[in-house]
């Protein structure tokens, strides 16, 4: 049932159930002593006007009378006449809005900008794509009950399939793995046009000042018999720590692991919005970056070139060599990452044990005076 002020619309999914639905409606009206105007009632109709829209068994369509008013609207005599005609044509061809049915594959069109993210949920029927006329604010119920096809011009499938390119994507890859989602290329239809329009017209929020404050980065690399890995600790201006582990799928020397950790940490920190970065490492590679030591190996020169390119992305960048004990957090993460055999481990539970499980009972023992007393005293 749809109710708006004094207008009511009783809908039934199946025609044989309509009489039963009306009986239930009349029972509620009679219970609360509500009366209807017979002159404004219509029963058993397959379509009609409701809230200036045409409701039919196919879905919700635009009102022909409203379309007529738009088509015959007088155009302004100016250089914007063509744009005005295109706008009238667009408004007169509003998409048919439908409901979602259990088991249907739903398609989501995404459009993103720096200021907004917009989406349109669509169902296909006989080769036609029609927007869902009502969706909740949270899309989780639809993702759980329907196969989802996400259409976007961003290569999400390749990006989420390689989470090592940005460690922040690991969280999202895990979150989305429980849903039946396929990523598809965009096609030029109204759904994508609507998504693009909403994101593009959204105004930019006030600029945040987080990028103007200094971020801290602690990195460490580890190379063992079990494997190689990196540990990264990023501290925001609000002194909130973000900890990451990277498991290398290749055998790396200790110096390579240190450089890989620094490159990954710089990329991640920049993506988080940092523009002023102070990095810490206990590696001797810091002196190579500063030019104190010479780099001879060709592959190490490539690492150094990447760091030089990355540091130009920041407004200010400084790296400091610190003792190992001051880099304990990153060191612990790197050792754990290198020791992991299954790099796809999703969750590591850490528990706190305040006291040992095996304890000694201390009891008071009374002593008597004997030959040992003078020795003890």
From TrEMBL:
Gene3D superfamilies, per the entry: 3.30.70.270, Ribonuclease H-like superfamily/Ribonuclease H
Superkingdom of source: Eukaryota
Residue ranges occupied by any RNase H type-1 domain in the UniProt entry: 211-339
Any Pfam family matching the protein: RVT_3
One Gene Ontology term of the molecular function aspect: nucleic acid binding
UniProt-recorded name of the protein: Ribonuclease H-like protein
Protein species of origin: Sesamum radiatum (Black benniseed)
